[in-house]
Amino acid sequence: MTTSFSTVDAATYGTIPELDEKEDSQEAQMLNDLGTNGIKLNASQSSIDNINSPSIMQMLQLQLQQKDDLKRIEAYHAKQRSERHLSRRAVGNADVSSWDEFVSAASDPNIDTINLKTDLQADSSATIDSDKIINFNGFKLSVNITANTKKTVTIASGNVKLVSPTVENKPPKVKTSTPSAFTFQGGSLTVTGNAQISGDFFSSTNTPGDLTFQDATAYFYNDICPWDYLGGKGDGSIISMTGSSAGSIKILNSTINDNSYGFIFFSGVPHKSMLIDDNSKITSTQPDVNATDSLYYFVATPQDHRVDGAGVELTIKGHSAVTINKAPTYDICAPIKLFGGGTKISLSEGSDLDVTNPAWRRNC
Question: Which domain of life is it from (predicted)?
């Protein structure tokens, strides 16, 4: 008795083992043997006199049927491998070529890697609430590049990594508050690779901001002065952490070039922390080297934060170096302007902090 079937599935054939995409099934190997060696006869069956005997014909029929069935089973395995391969590619990675595709991938918990395939301009806000790696691949993300727009990418939760990001969040030079390109509610944000950032980049308010630069070479630019904004909000600064939660910035094995009037702004209780470690190098300058009529800073807190628990714990270690050359003339003439009982600056042996204010003697 023989069994044949025109379609093959697990219910008909029983449990069929899953195979790797490159693995040959047992049936494929058997087919190869049949195709190479042909139908084998033993010595008693190989004579011409016996070739038409019933036993020989039955054996030929069985082997031909076996070969046909093996082909069907191998076809099933091939389809199984293909579907499994496509499924693995579909889940976990998203190639995006439009802002709508980015928004969809950002909010999809099944997507853990987003690959930009073209420059993107935000038409709306987006939310990330799961672990994500965003590969910029040499393309640019533009968020608020026209006046009076209020778009942002919110990190609601999850650990988010930006790989070699180019981010533009700088509308025309007007005295209006622009949301940061990335606003923080939970999780963490890590920047790695070569980064080009213009305008307000990162902000957290009443949430424990967690921002890390790891193995990064980052250039920041913002020619909007935070003069009108320095009242506890940090608007106009490239990075700000404010409100009633702790926050931390870590710069590890990275090179940072800040060319702005206000780089990092902290406010609120409890105090925030900033760690510069692992042979990092930071240079902080201002766009117009001759401008001396405002509050320019590398890191600052509001002057009214003279309370216990507020302030910044700044640590420079691991043979890191920070060079600051800004010319503030407002209030206390210093590009590092920190108040609060929690303020502490630590500099380990082998590290360097060099601060220059060319306007200090002339205008302060």
Answer: Bacteria
